[in-house]
Automatic annotation (TrEMBL):
Binds 1 Mn(2+) ion per subunit. Its cofactor is Mn(2+). This is Phosphoenolpyruvate carboxykinase [GTP]. It comes from Propioniferax innocua. Its EC number is 4.1.1.32. The keyword ATP-binding does not apply. Monomer. Residues 240-604 form the Phosphoenolpyruvate carboxykinase C-terminal P-loop domain. GO terms for cellular component: cytosol. The gene is pckG. It is an enzyme of class 4 (lyase). Residues 367-390 are annotated as: Disordered. Mn(2+) binds at residues 224, 244, 291. InterPro entries: PEP_carboxykin_GTP_CS, PEP_carboxykinase_C, PEP_carboxykinase_GTP, PEP_carboxykinase_GTP_C, PEP_carboxykinase_GTP_N, PEP_carboxykinase_N.
Length: 607
């Protein structure tokens, strides 16, 4: 084994932990990642030679690669994701809990020798700008080159992060292994992983242990594991918020800029809204982030949002020139990794929704020859060419509408918070909260149909508080209480809260609202509400646009679709009450009284 003597740091705790992890996992070599171009070239070439990556067409996707995972390793594994706190209450009723000592015993047995035949990479990284007042560092140890390459896109990593950490800085210890040791001379497989998977978090000691999966959310530990689960626990202790939110800057034709943060569950539209191309003339959107927002109070008492990430790990299907042209422009610049999409005969990528006309021939995400009429050879004609949770991993700096404020160490002042989900009925297109606690209630009771971003059934309605159900790193009751307390602290300087639903459906099953760029019409209404320029109709579920409230100029929609999309329907809300009741009851004594009081108001108003 290569010793750590040449380690590019004098940080004692880092060195000791790297030694200790190597002693447990027993890699053939240890490699400290510097984040250089040369390192990217070397590791990507190695994966191309071994067949793990396919280089894409240099003309259309320069310096980009294609990966196919095993069909059993395509999404986050919520069933195998654990919050390990001393008491079961610490993790709360929405998480899988395990005793930290027992979990470490279980996983140590799995980690024992798990990196044999492989290199152990040490990836120093920083979530958020390196020049932040309180930069949040992490070090990920992994035996996957795919993870190293992806972390280089998704985070600020390498020697610069290690230098900024200094010799005694705090860091989150992140251990990852695909769990597939190689015997002497054994040939590697394209996607090493293990049927046994554990994604474990130790919020009390700020550690992450991941085993068995190579998929993004399970393996790129800076993302969901650190920047949401561990960071939400840090944020609770330190008085800030770590949220599953996009951050966008919207400028009106008069030149006024608003910051909007929006929490939608996985695969429910954050990336698309973050890069929206407004259909309304004169409005401009700039992107700060598409998945995670860290929000802290600034000196002026307002909330400021920072995107801790450095890349997009976006849902590929549905991304096209007509839906999200800015994402298309971002990936066109190359330097990206595509996973589980389809491959064209020209060495480019394709997925459902990219183009209206499907290519005549593709290689599908399972590596089978595929045609639009017949589907894959040996499969069913209706099988999609790309997996529904196939993803592009691409540098955020390539986004043509990236905000100048993206790199700001203090972030951007938040004017509006949106909650949303994927609901075929009940939830109107847009509704404004009466005040902060009503907004917290909206977030707390937010619900959505499940998507392919996590393993399990798709299309089942579940409550997803603040779009954080899979990502709250501690007790969900304490989390809601923290939201209430943040409002008490921020008072009238807190952002205004709205609840949106782009996914309401008509009797024929089709979406009532055109979505995508047309969502700018809803954002305009929200800005007008902020300016006190537009009236609204009060309903028990919040204030909704009046009949002529939304700017629909130039919008071609059929019949009463817009009226149906925006409607508050009391009977549908009455049917929702028992579902909300059941959800809030599940918190038991941990439910904040403020949230219970808002529910009482809703029930009274509907009675
Ligand atoms: P994660 O990365 O999993 O957190 O997801 P996300 O919230 O960023 O979701 P994303 O923007 O990638 O959207 C997921 C899917 O929803 C894609 O297939 C989009 O095409 C679709 N979608 C996004 N916005 C809209 C919309 O306004 N209307 C409709 N009908 N579909 C949308
Ligand atoms: C999500 O599932 O919400 C994602 C993708 O953003 S992953 O990083 O894999 O969790
Ligand atoms: Mn996400």
């Amino acid at each position: 084994m290569t010793s750590t003597v040449q380690a590019p740091t004098a940080h004692e705790a880092v060195l000791a932990w790297v030694e200790q992890t190597a002693a447990m996992t027993k890699p053939d070599a240890i490699r400290w990642c510097d984040g250089s171009e040369a390192e990217w070239k070397e590791l990507s070439s190695r994966l191309v030679s071994s067949g793990a990556l396919v280089p894409l067409n240099e003309e259309t996707k320069p310096n980009s690669f294609y990966a196919r995972s095993l069909p059993s390793d395509v999404a986050r594994v919520e069933d195998q994701t654990f919050i390990c706190t001393k008491t079961e209450r610490g993790a709360g009723h929405t998480n899988n809990w395990a005793d930290p000592v027992e979990m470490k015993q279980t996983m140590s047995a799995l980690y024992d020798g798990c990196m044999k035949g492989r290199t152990m990479y040490v990836i120093p990284f920083c979530m958020g700008p390196l020049d932040a007042e309180d930069p949040k560092f992490g070090i990920e140890i992994t035996d996957s080159e795919y993870v190293v390459l992806s972390m280089r896109i998704m985070t600020r990593m390498g020697q610069a992060a290690l230098d900024a950490l200094g010799t005694d800085g705090d860091f989150v210890k992140c251990v990852h292994s695909v769990g597939a040791p190689l015997a002497e001379g054994e040939q590697d497989v394209p996607w090493p992983c293990n049927d046994t998977k554990y994604i474990s978090h130790f919020p009390e000691t700020r550690e992450i242990w991941s085993f068995g999966s190579g998929y993004g959310g399970n393996a790129l530990l800076g993302k969901k594991c650190y920047a949401l689960r561990i960071a939400s626990a840090m944020a609770h202790d330190e008085g800030w918020l770590a949220e599953h939110m996009l951050i966008l800057r919207l400028t009106s034709p008069e030149g006024k800029t608003y910051t909007i943060c929006a929490a939608f569950p996985s695969a429910c539209g954050k990336t698309n809204l973050a890069m929206l191309e407004p259909t309304l003339p004169g409005w401009k959107v700039e992107t700060c982030g598409d998945d995670i927002a860290w929000m802290r109070f600034g000196e002026d008492g307002r909330l400021y949002a920072v995107n801790p990430e450095y890349g997009f790990f976006g849902v590929a299907p549905g991304t096209g020139w007509d839906t999200n042209p800015n994402a298309m422009r971002t990936i066109e610049k190359g330097n990206s990794i595509f996973t589980n999409v389809a491959l064209t005969d020209h060495g480019d990528v394709w997925w459902e929704g990219m183009t209206k006309v499907k290519p005549k021939h593709l290689t599908d995400w399972k590596g089978r020859s595929w045609t639009p009429d017949e589907g894959p050879v040996g499969g069913e004609p209706e099988e999609k060419a790309a997996h529904p949770n196939s993803r592009f991993c691409t540098p955020i700096t390539q986004c043509p509408i990236l905000s100048d404020e993206f790199d700001s160490p203090t972030g951007v002042p938040v004017d509006v918070i949106l909650f949303g989900g994927r609901r075929a009925s009940t939830i109107p297109l847009v509704a404004e909260a009466r005040d902060w606690n009503h907004g917290v209630f909206m977030g707390a009771t937010c619900s959505s149909e499940t998507t392919a971003a996590a393993t399990g059934k798709v299309g089942v309605v579940r409550r997803d508080p603040m779009a954080m159900l899979p990502f709250i790193g501690y007790n969900a009751g304490d989390y809601l209480k923290h939201w209430v307390k943040m409002g008490e602290k921020g008072g009238d300087k807190m952002p205004r809260v709205f609840y949106v639903n782009w996914f309401r459906r008509g009797d024929d099953g089709s979406f009532l609202w055109p979505g995508f760029g047309e969502n700018s019409r809803v954002l305009k209404w929200i800005c007008e509400r902020l300016e006190g320029r537009v009236e609204a109709t009060e309903t028990p579920a919040g204030a909704i646009p009046t009949e002529d409230g939304l700017d629909l100029s130039g919008l071609d929609v059929k019949g009463d679709d817009i009226a149906e999309a925006t409607a508050f329907k009391a009977d549908e809300w009455r049917a929702e009450i028992p579902l909300i009741q059941e959800w809030l009851d599940s918190f038991g004594e941990d439910l904040p009284t403020e949230v219970a009081a808002e529910f009482d108001k809703l029930k009274d108003a509907l009675a």
